[in-house]
Write a structure and sequence with these properties.
Radius of gyration: 21 Å
Pfam families: p450 (PF00067)
Protein name: Cytochrome P450
Helix content: 40-55%
Strand order of the largest sheet: 2-3-11-8-4
Largest sheet: 5 strands, mixed
Number of strands: 15
GO molecular function: heme binding; iron ion binding; monooxygenase activity; oxidoreductase activity, acting on paired donors, with incorporation or reduction of molecular oxygen
Shape: globular
Keywords: Heme, Iron, Metal-binding, Monooxygenase, Oxidoreductase
Strand content: 5-15%
CATH architecture: Orthogonal Bundle
Organism: Actibacterium naphthalenivorans
CATH class: Mainly Alpha
Number of helices: 16
Distance between the termini: 44 Å
Structural class: alpha+beta
Length: 408
């Protein structure tokens, strides 16, 4: 069954005013050659009210509320009484299972227990111990590329480098890299539900095999950590272990790769920023934060649990809500000259790692991977640019460049 993303009639709930039903460009499974950030996100901010309803905004081409301002997104992130994180991803549903991503798709009070369980292995101190290993992987890839004069950055670096780190943490063989990339592509960038389901089933079956193996043969990895851990005095259920490891799989294989692709695409198009970071590598952490603000790739979803209102808009139980970091990062009410990239920008941060109770626990690892990748690439590779004549295309779900052809 292939998902039909063409315009179609859907039933608009009675509580949704006609004037709030508007188009939303960021449709799952769609590609564009337009600029998703400076063009599409800016257009949404310029032409829509702070909260509007779109017929095809939720994965599967179904309706959802779209909240476009950073202020309102922060409010909803903190409102766990009216807005639930459960079931925002389609993966367990499309294979007929009931697990949720742990801790991402959980609500209080169990959410606090899940975060405590996961945070022990993703604390800044724990991640700092991986510095040399991460740098070694990054340097290995850069050394293999620097004399070639060109690369397709997504394929040759952005995907495989973070996977090396993910494999290390999970205790998985590096020989599975190609297979994992194929599964990731089918799950996150296909609009063919059959392909998504087949890939999801393959991943879940593989994760269950590894979990079963660690019960019998424990090692020093995150599978073993999961099967040996206890939450509130009890062992994790099968659903919880699958949700935990699947969450790591998605985050470890795609999110960091996507952000690095967007960051290096910006540097290729802006040689003055590239030179700034080459001249003073100490600016790289601040630059990454600004690039995360300006090029946020991730959208998550919430479900309304009880009648409530925000800014005069009425939400009803079952309504889906689009929580777009892409829109938040370019919100002109939140950031002065939101479409300008300034490495010395002073602001209160960004929503690209989530916000409030669901602030991403993997952000310390992600930041370290992105920083080291940029340090090593700029150290070894001369000034790079986009290949002449290349027109960059982006996926619009997880907003990711399909290819970044660099030359130097």
């Amino acid at each position: 069954m292939e998902l039909d993303l063409s315009p179609k009639e859907v039933e608009i709930p009675a509580h949704v005013p006609d004037e709030l039903v508007l188009p939303f460009p960021f449709l799952f499974g769609v590609k564009t050659k337009q600029d998703p950030f400076g063009e599409l996100a800016a257009q949404v901010h310029a032409e829509t009210p702070p909260i509007f309803y779109s017929k095809h905004a939720y994965p599967g081409g179904t309706p959802a509320w779209v909240v476009r301002t950073a202020e309102d997104l922060k409010t909803i992130h903190f409102d766990t009484e009216n807005f639930s994180n459960k079931g925002f991803s389609p993966f367990s549903m499309i294979i007929g299972e009931t697990w949720n991503l742990v801790p991402a798709e959980s609500d209080p009070p169990i959410h606090a227990h899940y975060r405590a369980f996961v945070s022990r292995v993703f604390s800044p101190g724990a991640i700092a111990k991986l510095e040399d290993k991460i740098r070694g992987y990054a340097r290995e890839y850069v050394e293999g590329l620097k004399d070639k004069g060109k690369c397709e950055f997504m394929r040759d670096f952005a995907f495989e480098f973070p996977i090396k780190v993910f494999m290390e943490l999970m205790g998985l063989p590096q020989s599975r890299t190609k297979q994992f990339l194929e599964w990731e592509e089918a799950m996150l960038h296909s609009h063919d539900l059959k392909k998504m389901a087949v890939a999801t089933r393959s991943v879940v079956d593989y994760l269950r095999e590894e979990l079963a193996d660690r019960r019998e043969n424990p090692t020093d990895d995150l599978f073993t950590y999961g099967v040996q851990a206890k939450i509130d005095g009890r062992e994790l259920t099968d659903d919880e272990l699958v949700g935990f490891t699947f969450n790591l799989f998605i985050g470890g294989l795609d999110t960091v790769s996507t952000q690095m692709g967007l960051q290096f695409l910006h540097l290729a198009r802006n040689p003055e920023h590239q030179k700034m970071l080459r001249d003073d590598p100490s600016l790289i952490p601040a630059a990454i934060d600004e690039l995360m603000r300006a090029y946020p790739a991730v959208t998550v979803f919430k479900t309304v649990t009880q009648p409530c209102e925000l800014k005069g808009v009425k939400f009803m139980p079952g309504d889906k809500v689009v929580m777009s970091a892409t829109l938040a990062g370019r919100d002109p009410a939140e950031y002065d000259a939101a479409n300008e990239i300034r490495f010395d920008r002073e602001s209160d941060g960004h929503l690209s790692f989530g916000y409030g109770p669901h602030l991403c626990l993997g952000m310390h690892l992600a930041r370290r991977e992105m920083r080291i990748a940029m340090e090593e690439f700029l150290r070894a590779v001369p000034e790079f640019r986009l290949k002449d004549g290349v027109e960059v295309e982006h996926y619009l779900g997880m907003i990711q460049p399909t290819a970044v052809d660099l030359v130097w």
